[in-house]
Amino acid sequence: MTNPQKDFIAGIKEELESADTVDVKLDRYGYHIAGKHYRRTTSITGGGIAKPWLAAWKAKMVAEFAVRHIDLWKDLPTQEDKIKLLKSHPDSKRDAAGARGTAVHNTLEALVNGDPIPEDLTEDELACSRAAAKFLQERNSKPLATEMTIFNPTLNYAGTLDLWEIDSNGQTWILDYKTSSGIYPEHAIQQIAYQNAEFAIVSKKVVQEGATQVWEGKVIPFHRSYAERLGLVHVEPNKATLHEIAPDQHQHLYRTFRAADFMTKFLKETSTFKGKTPTRQIFAEGIVTSTEGNK
């Protein structure tokens, strides 16, 4: 370990000694930290940034599945059954990709904690996990935390980053591991949100309660100097590639995140999905002009 790494870690340990402990809950509604609700960073970037490619991808998945597996759906009893099966196919592909991502994240956490790589992985998951492990082992850096929750009370958001580390030159990094087919701009925007967090929760031990996770951890201030560099690690079965987010793009990406935040709030406040009454009324009472009775 280099001297810059030792000095930084010693400073973090000193902060933790006097840090307060908070209770955290994560469910489908977001994060609940010390009794206050925080929105997920993924909800902000997912809801506020348009993804025109997504609809085309889903349409392609359904069409390919329908052509290749016609025997699976053509004899289903009702049209509704056929539509339900075909519509669900993109979700199945997404879930399979999610399983790969979970395997890589679990491997990363195990390696940082000195535990063995998880067992019962598929051949694809194992190959990706080994690629991620090789990348981590060859990188001359010191992990500080994995699966660390950060939050910003001012802007009311929270998220969980994959890896916080410090390299041999004493520069701090946030790394996010991605097993998707590619690296996309919204991934970088999520990293920017992490970089601009105000606090971090360290030393957590998660307990699963159904679909809800609960834990407690020590809270320390999170400064910009704690995340000087940002990177996405694209993990594939045979390799892992680091894509650093260009430092001269950080400010631009932060403005984009803020814009996505405003858009997400607007969409939520004006939503009428399934008969919901919007919380923000955009229009005043209508003025009717009638032609009734005119000749």
Q: Number of domains in the coordinates? A: 1
Please list the strands of the largest sheet in the order they lie side by side: 1-2-3-5-4-7-9
Mean pLDDT: 86
**Biggest beta-sheet profile:** 7 strands, mixed, barrel
Topology pattern, helix = H, strand = E: HEEEHHHHHEEEHEEEEEH
- Large-scale geometry: globular
Radius of gyration: 23 Å
**Beta-strand content bin:** 25-35%
Got a strand count?
11
The total of helices stands at 8
Helix share bin:
40-55%
Low-confidence stretches: none
Structural class: alpha+beta
Distance between the termini: 91 Å
Characterise this structure:
It contains eight helices and eleven strands. It is α+β, with helices and mostly antiparallel strands. It has one domain (3-275). A seven-stranded mixed beta barrel has the order 1-2-3-5-4-7-9, surrounded by four helices. Helix 2 (41-48) packs antiparallel against helix 7 (185-195) and helix 2 packs across helix 8.
Summary, kept brief:
The protein is an alpha+beta fold and 295 residues long.
